[in-house]
Structure formats: structure tokens, C-alpha cells
Design a protein that fits this description.
Distance between the termini: 66 Å
Number of helices: 10
Largest sheet: 4 strands, antiparallel
Order of helices and strands: EEEHEHEEHHHEEHEEHHHEEEH
Strand order of the largest sheet: 4-13-6-11
């Protein structure tokens, strides 16, 4: 057995080794640099009363005013809600809720009067709200074909298996397929203002500009491209089982029809909680100031969406917005709570440090 000879270190700190065959081997020792030898300067924070206590007080003094501002701003947002589920016998929509189902051939219409005590100024948004509807169910969320919704012709005729059992109907591919699309909210809501003269004035509601920009122009596209004849493109497909009309008849406006219909796009963005609201219409650039004056109003509902089978509830919400968005008191409360807790802990720790810190200092001096 041949011996191995070790030579001196080179200028980089490596040891050269002469192997049995006369070759030269280098060791695996890291280079002699500050980084590889872990000699870089480091900073290790030391938590002392002089650093911790100011941090608690600063967080408290910053968070509490921010929370108060957010809470006041949220309370200044005006919001009005009308439940038109029709559970109570006194409700104008009671007959519709009892008799209407997905298989009904004729939609039911009901009228709900209400009174706005305060005027709504600026842009006003109309939402529809659903309760006890679990859009976050795993199989429900997966029941869609994103390639089909992006305008892919192959996916239009051969939907994904994720859409089952809403992929084919009468041996025809469903467009759009899946449980999400099949359960799309399809009530029609119209708002009327009853002026003091007794005239019933229709409040103009815009059905565009309610979807996210990325959804409208990136995620959803019609097959055949812009300007295509949707009736011809969707020939040979079937509408979802629970829909009253096919996807190419959702709107007369070609820029808001088919897969790029904004009502459809808003519904396809699933909610995280069983009680949720989705944007339905907007009242923008109104010629009347305020946008919605105080007074008597009438909500006319074409009742197409049954919720009795899953004990759900439906409501219409009118709301203004602010720089922080819609009404959300939780954010302000959270800031005030965190700031108050930090400020309280700062006071407690200051008292403890004042009492116990002097004892420790005197003990060190005596020793």
C-alpha cells in the first residue's frame, strides 16, 4: 500500500495532497475568506428596557389614531340593505319563494317598497348578497374549465373532467361548463324612485365596470376572438342546466356578451365565506345631485334564483364608498385593539421596570 504525502498550504489556504499515482489532490476545506470562514461582521440585538418600552409606546401611538380614522371613515359610508328572500308570509316575495324552482318556465316578479332616510351622494353601488351558500367547497371551486373560459375552441367542444357532472347535456358540451357557472345568480333587480309628485322614476343602473380589469381582459375571452358571431361560435353546445338562456344571449351589447359578460365574470370569482356579497350594478355620473335622494323607493325583483332548498337568504345592498373602499369597521377596530394592547403592555412593563430595575441595580452595587 503506497503512502500519501501531504504538502504545504498554498496562498489560498488549501492543502495539496500527493496521491499514490503521482497526481495532486486538493482538500475540500473552504477558502480562507471572510464569507466562507464566517468572519463577516454581525449585529445581534439585545432587548433592553430602553429599546422595548419605546417600541411599545410608538406602536400604540401610531396604531390608535390610524384605527380611529379608519373606524370613523367606515361609519361615514352609508349602506342600506333589503332582504327579499320571501321567507315571511308578509313579504311581497313570499309566493315567489314558495313556488319558484329551477324548472319553472315563467319567472316570478315581486315588488318591495322601502324608504331612504338619508341621501346617497357620489358613486352608489348595488350589490346582491347570499347567505348559507358555500362557494368555498373544494369540489365546487374546482368545477370549471379555465381553458374553455379563455376562449379555447378545443376546450369548448371537449370540456375538462373537472366540470362533471356539468360537462355534457344531451350529448352536447355545456358552455360554460361546471357547477360554478351552472349556479350563476340570475335575479333581475330594478330600482325606482317615487318622487313627491307621484311619478315613478327608473334609476339608471350600469352593468359594466363591475368586474376586475384582469378578469375582463385577461382571464376571460370569447372563442373566435373579438367581433366573432357568438351564435355561430357556440353552435353545437348546450347552455348550463339551470340557465334560462344560452351564454351568447346574456347581453345585447357585444362587448358584454358571452364569456366576457361581467355579471358572469363577477359570479365566477368564488367567495371565501358562506355569507357574501357581489357587485351587481353601479350608479355613476348621475345627473341628479344627490345620486339617490332621501325618500320612497321601490325594488322590483324578477325572482329567478331559488334559495329555499339550501335555506339561503337573498338581499339587495345599496352602498357608497370611501378612499378605503366599502364599509369595513373591522379594520379600524383591529388597529385600535392592537395599539391599545401595545400601549397597555408598555405601561405595565414600565411599572415593572421602575420597581424591579432599581432593586437589581442596588444589588449589583452592594456586590
Amino acid at each position: 500500500m503506497m503512502a500519501t504525502s501531504y504538502n504545504a498550504k498554498d496562498e489560498d489556504g488549501h492543502i495539496t495532497v500527493s496521491g499514490p499515482g503521482g497526481g495532486t489532490l486538493r482538500s475540500r476545506k473552504p477558502e480562507n475568506t471572510a464569507f466562507k470562514q464566517q468572519r463577516l461582521p454581525a449585529w445581534q440585538p439585545i432587548l433592553t428596557a430602553g429599546t422595548v418600552l419605546p417600541a411599545f409606546f410608538i406602536i400604540g401611538l401610531i396604531f390608535i389614531p390610524i384605527g380611529i380614522g379608519l373606524y370613523v371613515t367606515s361609519n361615514n359610508i352609508r349602506e342600506f340593505e333589503v332582504d327579499y328572500t320571501g321567507v315571511d308570509m308578509s313579504s311581497p316575495c313570499f309566493n315567489c319563494s314558495q313556488n319558484y324552482s329551477w324548472n319553472s318556465s315563467r319567472p316570478c316578479t315581486c315588488t318591495i317598497p322601502f324608504y331612504l332616510e338619508q341621501p346617497y351622494e357620489g358613486n352608489v353601488y348595488m350589490y346582491y348578497g347570499l347567505s348559507n351558500f358555500y362557494q368555498n367547497h373544494r369540489r365546487y371551486v374546482k368545477s370549471r374549465d379555465d381553458s374553455q373560459l379563455h376562449g379555447d375552441m378545443d376546450s369548448l367542444l371537449t370540456p375538462s373532467k373537472e366540470c362533471e357532472p356539468y360537462a355534457f347535456h344531451d350529448k352536447k358540451p355545456i358552455a360554460p361548463c361546471g357547477a360554478i357557472a351552472n349556479s350563476m345568480f340570475n335575479d333581475t333587480l330594478e330600482l325606482f324612485y317615487n318622487d313627491p309628485n307621484g311619478t315613478k322614476v327608473l334609476v339608471p343602473l350600469a352593468n359594466t365596470g363591475i368586474a376586475w380589469f384582469t378578469d375582463k381582459y385577461v382571464k376571460f375571452k370569447n372563442p373566435g376572438g373579438d367581433g366573432a358571431n357568438l351564435t355561430a361560435v357556440f353552435q353545437g353546445t348546450s347552455k348550463p342546466v339551470n340557465w334560462l338562456k344560452p351564454v351568447y344571449e346574456l347581453d345585447k351589447n357585444s362587448s358584454n356578451n358571452g364569456f366576457i359578460n361581467e355579471d358572469f365574470i363577477v359570479w365566477m370569482r368564488t367567495a371565501a365565506l358562506p355569507t357574501f356579497r357581489k357587485l351587481y350594478r353601479t350608479i355613476k355620473d348621475a345627473k341628479v345631485i344627490p345620486t339617490l335622494p332621501s325618500g320612497n323607493y321601490t325594488l322590483e325583483v324578477v325572482y329567478n334564483y331559488p334559495v329555499r332548498s339550501f335555506e339561503g337568504r337573498k338581499r339587495m345592498i345599496l352602498s357608497t364608498i370611501s378612499w378605503m373602499g366599502g364599509k369595513n369597521p373591522f379594520l379600524g377596530i383591529a388597529y385600535v385593539t392592537v395599539g391599545s394592547v401595545c400601549f397597555f403592555l408598555g405601561v405595565v412593563l414600565l411599572v415593572i421596570h421602575h420597581k424591579c430595575g432599581n432593586r437589581n441595580n442596588s444589588a449589583d452595587i452592594s456586590n
